[in-house]
Design brief:
Elements (H helix, E strand, L loop, with lengths): L6 E5 L1 H11 L4 H4 L1 H5 L10 H16 L8 E6 L7 E9 L6 E8 L4 E8 L7
Antiparallel strand pairs: 1-3, 2-5, 3-4, 4-5
Amino acid sequence: MQQLPTTTLVVTGEAIRQYAELTQDFNPLHLDSAFAATTRMGSVIAHGTMSISLILQSLAKAFGAEAVVNVDLDIRFIKPVRVDETLTAGGERESGDARRYAVWVRGVEGEDRLVGVATLGPAALG
């Protein structure tokens, strides 16, 4: 497979609150508009791991849920994700290695939010 299937998420305030509950990460930067306004971010931003989860969903669509258990992610956050943004995650196989994928999360305007490389464990490809 050269191209990973894409995964999309609309990042609502409710989605961020639910993610905070799920992960037990109640950092006010993600939940408190008044606090977030005083930071260099200027407003509430989504958890970075929410974007990572979209990459894992894309890999799971392509290779099954078991494939993401031993995946190695080397990622870099490019730009924060704000409330009401729509994100899409996907990736492309890197030439020369069937286990390595250049992965990304982008906003609707195509601007990168996260980029990196996912390396699947040997068992993922059967």
